[in-house]
Write a structure and sequence with these properties.
Layout lengths: L5 E7 L6 H14 L4 E5 L10 H10 L5 H4 L14 H6 L7 H12 L4 E5 L7 E3 L2 E2 H8 L3 E6 L4 H14 L4 E7 L6 H17 L6 E4 L6 H16 L2
Parallel strand pairs: 1-3, 1-6, 2-3, 6-7, 7-8
Antiparallel strand pairs: 4-5
Helix pairs in contact: 1-2, 1-9, 7-8
Amino acid sequence: MARGCRVIFVAGIDTGIGKTVACGMLARALLDRGRSVITQKLVQTGCRGLSSDIRAHRRAMGIALTPEDRSGLTCPYVFRFPASPHLAAAREGVRINPARIASATRRLAGLYDYVLIEGVGGIDVPLRDGLTTLDYLARHRFPVIVVSSSRLGSINHTMLTLRALRSRGLKAAGIVYNRYPRGNRAIALDTRRVLASALRRLGYPAVIVDLPRADASAAARRQFSRRCARLFGAQ
């Protein structure tokens, strides 16, 4: 990667967990700190044309689509069928080439201070037969920010995600914690406590930052930006 550029992977514990909002808001936090930043989507499924997740990132960042977006560089693979990447690609007669994704990341890294890559689904989703997202991360050694939530089942999914990262020698910088939609407060607080303890036990920074809504107030975004300094400082 380009000297001085930091590439960070934003991984979710499951599909529909808030990765897209988190990635956009993390990028916005870096913009607020005066850094140049671009987001990339590993693979987009259930979409036509320009990645809908990239569009959502730009809205959260408060910027227009970039030339890199319009050229497809920020999402090299977009498939119509809403399924795991390996299946969505196969239905269109495509086999995902990880070198194409990595090349796009390198080109973006030559233009920006930070590249934030949003994953697809959970950490062990297959990109093609014999290659999962976790395998891809192990090849490239990107630090990972994990997006978790307060919904039931999140403790199990988050623990498995953290242990999977640990088993491959990958670095987790911390957790972005999505509490939307709001549920039981006692469960949300206890889940947060358990996850902080898990980070410490696994030797990761016990950094958990609450995710604001995508339409959060300016004050809420500033607070999130300040707290994100701990995530980025852990790189």
